[in-house]
Amino acid sequence: xxxxxxxxxxxxxxLGHSDTRITRDIYQSVLxxxxxxxxxxxxxxxxxxxxxxxxxxxxxxAKKAKDKAKAEARTKRKGKRxxxxx
Length: 86
Prior knowledge:
By secondary structure, the protein is mainly α. The protein contains 4 helices and no strands.
């Protein structure tokens, strides 16, 4: 029944199991394809996203600005360091 896609709660009730965990523990290890099918069905629910050119350009601009800010902060810190006396 699980392999046919019937909900685990219905299978559990039909078999007289007191809890769906019993059904899952017994049958899902015997039927690994059921888990694979469930994973594939779940993956189909979440559409893949493709970044638009604008999104990619915005990401690159943000990274460039972040890198520039880091470089400026490093330069500023270097200027504040005391020079050793000779």
